[in-house]
Amino acid sequence: MSGTLLTLSILVLIACGIYVFPVFKKPFARLYIGVPEEISGSLQAFRKQHPHRQLTVNGVVWNYISVGDGDETIVFLHGMGGGYDIWWQQIEALQNRCRVIAPTYPPVPRLDLLRRGILAILAHEHVDQFNIVGSSLGGYLAQYLVSKDSDRIKKAVFANTFPPNDIIREKSRVTAKLLPLLPEWMVMRNLRKTTLTAIYPASGNSKLVAAYMLEQSYGMMRKVQFVARFFCVLDSFAAPDLAGCGVEVLIIEADNDPLVARPLRKMLKTTYPSVTVKTLSAAGHFPYLNQPEAYTNILEKFFF
Q1: pTM more than 0.70
Q2: What are 58-80's pLDDT values in tens digits?
Q3: 3-state DSSP assignment of residue 228
Q4: Count H helices, E strands: the chain?
């Protein structure tokens, strides 16, 4: 019996060790080795110049930045894999013309919890009326905010995203059950695989896109954040009536987006048939990273 218990104890310890095996961070210089120095240096300088502000909302700590000055405020909302600084090239280009607020989502698994946090940040920063740019999950969240707070929103960009739908939820039933149970290293390994096999090629082999996403998977983002964001994607709501709410909307898409399937891109445009659509060619899922000038130009023309 003692031998059996010893064997079981060893197996349990091995299993626990495998499960809690840490995700090791990799140095910035190593991850960004293929990125032009002026670009990687710009990102590093941006992070240094704009450290997070913090605000606790319902017991949850939110990290965000508020930069720039102007009569207009634009809130930038990132997707499942990213943070406030994924927009740094657009923020630096626009901050002399407007105020920019960009949060990094804490691990909250519902769209309304994200909404409450964002509204709390805006209240803390004394912002009443605002504009939104959201991509991927951020674009989905932007639609939710328009559906709930259209009286406060002037203009909104729904980018590389999808409308409220049942397709993603139905396809993700098994994943929704398994994902919270997987060890962090396995979740991040799968993110790296997706980055290298789908996201990177679709971006025109952008070293910046690959480096930023790999940095997220090597400790910049935690599993608890990724899982919470996944469940936000599955959250449901009624699409806003743009004709009735008065919010001006622009859709930005890429014709080869590897993470938003063509039927979902078509559904987005069908859901909002009167909205102007800007389609970027061969830009992938993160065009604001790998085509920053073209992307910023679209935003400038829309907001100013």
Answers
A1: yes
A2: 999 999 999 998 899 999 999 99
A3: helix
A4: 16, 8
